[in-house]
Amino acid sequence: MRYPREIRQFIYTTNQVERLAKEIKRRIKVIEVFPDEGSVERLLYLILKELNERLNLRKLRGFNEIELGNYHAFPGKIFTQ
């Protein structure tokens, strides 16, 4: 499928995944030893929650210009909400 040039970089990039892995490694390195599996799960949950909150505040370039009515990547398809 063809996407507008403005959003293509956000679809095909792995920067967010790489950043997530780096953040997890950084936080785990500080602790080194976990008492049980639950503590690892709690740490991962808190890391993901914090990063998700930060990402929700970001404005992504190109997404403001795309409106469902003006988006022509799927000609002939009808989108409903």
Could you explain the architecture of this structure?
- This protein has 81 residues and is mainly alpha-helical.
- 57% of the residues lie in helices and 0% in strands.
- It has helices at residues 5-12, 15-31, 37-57.
- Helix 2 (15-31) crosses helix 3.
Record keyword descriptors for this entry.
mainly alpha, 81 residues, 57% helix, elongated, single chain, 3 helices
Please give a quick description of this structure.
This protein has 81 residues and is mostly helical. The chain has helices at residues 5-12, 15-31, 37-57.
Task: Give the CA-CA distance, first to last residue.
Answer: 21 Å
**Helix/strand-derived class?**
mainly alpha
Q: Give the radius of gyration.
A: 18 Å
User: Please, what is the average pLDDT?
Assistant: 75
Q: Work out the strand percent.
A: under 5%
Q: Which percent bin holds the helix content?
A: 55-70%
How many β-strand runs?
Answer: 0
Structurally, how many domains make up the residues? 1
User: What's the shape?
Assistant: elongated
Q: Compute the number of helices.
A: 3
Main β sheet profile: none
Reconstruct the topology from this structure.
Elements: H1 5-12, H2 15-31, H3 37-57
